[in-house]
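Objective 1b: paired records.
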Amino acid sequence: MNLASLFYYQDILLYISFIPLIGIFLLVFINPEQQKLMKIVAINFSSIPFHSFLFVWGGFKKSVGTFQFVSKLLWIPVLNLNVTLGIDGISLFFLLLTTFLIPLCILISWNSIGSNLKGYLISFLIIEYFLIGVFCVLDVLMFYILFESILIPMFLVIGIWGSRERKMLASYYFFLYTLLGSVVMLLSILYIYGQVGTTDYEILLTFMFSDFEQKILWFTFFLAFAAKVPMVPVHLWLPEAHVEAPTAGSVILAGVLLKLGTYGFIRFSLPLFPQASFYFAPLVYTMSLIGIVYASLTAIRQTDFKRIIAYTSVAHMNVVMLGIFSFNNVGIEGALLQSLSHGFVASALFVIIGVVYERYRTRLVKYYGGLVHTMPLYISVFLFFTMANIGFPGTSGFIGEFLIFAGSFKVNSSVTVFGATGMILGGCYALWLFNRIAYGNLKSQYIKETLDINKREFFIFVPLICYTLILGLTPDAYLSSIHMSVNNLIENMYF
């Protein structure tokens, strides 16, 4: 019996998904005064799933495009509703990204959360549990339930542990924008259940909706996923949420939650409603191009460190949308790699902001300058991720963007040319921001003492740097696992 067959018999995905719940159970019974013990429990039970999914990757069959490690659970047998878990190359790396970033979020918050630490740690373990479910579940209704359930703990993280006075407004922005877009999606899921008699994803792949049904259903799913990406004009919640969220909240928001939108398009919109996807592609191209240029230009004129990076996230995720709607292997695989890259790079940039905010309690760029003289290690890390953010060759950002534009060029060269302007504008805002922070005279009237990154912060940056370089220098390690799943996706669309 080989390693992969052992996993099939043991329902490995189900067991991994329960690990954060065990951590939550233990945290509930720990005395709130034992803060160090709570942190140790949380970081260990949040990191075990990451190592488990690395083990799963070792048993993953790269030559198979269908779902692997599949297990079924009875949910409501009377209504023919069962919960099916399974992964393919598309979902595998989103799971690894999720379970990698959650322990990092806890490490980021090691010294910065002063009130209700237990509730904070439990919220992140709940987020991890729901995210594992979202990327594993093969049922449209259960996907929707988990997709929306993430809003609750994230709402609490922003609203309770946010850093400024507008945190409640930001949490309501986040909750309402993303929830309202998803309400019509629930109505569509109920319609699908009425037509097909089940919400099982693999059965739905074999069912052909009429062209009119596809257009209506696609558009309702689009409203839900576009708000998560986010696409212009439903992006307004993101800068507010990022600015008010604690550093760890911004990391998980940029690193994983934005990927729920792109994952939803790849997993559901393209294969379930292929004709509608082709029909609405010009709309997506137009909105994406507007989003890229608008977010890039808006980032240039911002004065808040976090708000600048928030708008860069909007621009990068709209580039990902161009890759998804190229409808070919190169573009879609590039979109997946760029999503992973953005998870590492954007997360690191928000940690970089958090480092100086914890020291000086301000995010206004005008108060900084000349930090290269007193924080050389910090500036070196900042420079590396600035280069990765603008797609410098050798970093993960270059590979993802190159594949996206190569794929979209096959479909529409004009879209590619306009989309590539985002790379030029990206260089403008990223390098200008770095120049203002790193160089010039040290503004000693605002910053009295300067401390370079400490040991804890160093060990947060090391894995982010390593994965950014590995993805940029050896992309085939990831592409070989993704390729067959993307092939299978395209076959479902065209045949």
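Objective 1b, second protein:
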Amino acid sequence: MAPTHVLRCCQRGLAWIPVIFIALVVCWSYYAYVVELCLYTITMMGERIVYLIFFHVSFVMFVWSYWKTIFTKPANPSKEFCLPKAEKERYEKEERPESQQEILWRAASTLPLYTRTGAGAIRYCDRCQVIKPDRCHHCSACDMCVLKMDHHCPWVNNCVGFSNYKFFILFLAYSLVYCLFIAATVLQYFIKFWTLCRRKSAENCPKNELNNSAKFHVLFLFFVAAMFCISILSLFSYHLWLVGKNRSTIEAFRAPVFRTGSDKNGFSLGFRKNIAQVFGDQKQYWLLPIFTSQGDGLTFPTRLVNADAEQATVTLQPDSNKWANRTSSYSVPEVSVSPLSESQNRLLSNEQQANNAEDHLAENFLKSAESETVTMESES
């Protein structure tokens, strides 16, 4: 037990190495830009003041958003998604997956759950012992279930999810602005110093125009800013695309499964509403690392609420081809759901969800009683 605890502590300590590396690079860039460039290299007072003002604005916003991304605790499922003590004991004692699913279906009958596993079962985390809300996933690095989990980022040593996704986007944006500003303002001095360095003899370099310390810092500062700028630009562009589609990184690689089957655009509400889901309704706070995201992270509106009222009833059933390839499957009956009105803001109300889940459970076990018992793989 002790060696495991020590190993865990060592892993947590080593996880801060990327953050410390970024902090050291940022501190060095501050010294190189402010001291070596603005104070020792730039001679025009007006240019120096303008550079220092814009540099410190971008620097403060970058550090602020980075700090919020690192130290904002990931949001976890609330207690209502935990199994009651009696149900938990029954679940742990049961060995048959179908019996375990019966317990989960009963516990989830009053919860706002609209997504399922690939096999159509309730999403349950055996590690955290909670029923997973929609878009919630277990992070092995943080060892917890995270609401609307996007990914675990080693550069912030934190899990990026519902509570800090806006901060992460702003961190990428301001770090890109920071690097672009440095690269753009240092470029002319980089060219100047690079030209001087290519001269054949040191005597040809005016000493009052250049010193070795400033030369090193300015040259290296441009290379580092350009390198980070290229890498951050691609990541920032990708996450802007995800925000516009209202997807997480996990959902981009594995589409969420609804009762109608998998749908990669299931949570997309249109570009403007997708942006508001992350940044909120008050545009004056969009550029500030202040939490303004919509919702509570437990339930999310879906595009299915805008279904045409005159559309025919949709029959929800699992993909027959997918199930035919399974040697062991779990029998899930067909569930009919009527289309919803446009005035609704959620996929289903809690009362509708409870009725559907109870009907699903009753039909499932009436059929399984008449046929041979089959097993399914529960989602890890």
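Residues 305-355, 365-380 have pLDDT under 50 and may be disordered. The CA atoms of residues 251 and 264 lie 7 Å apart.
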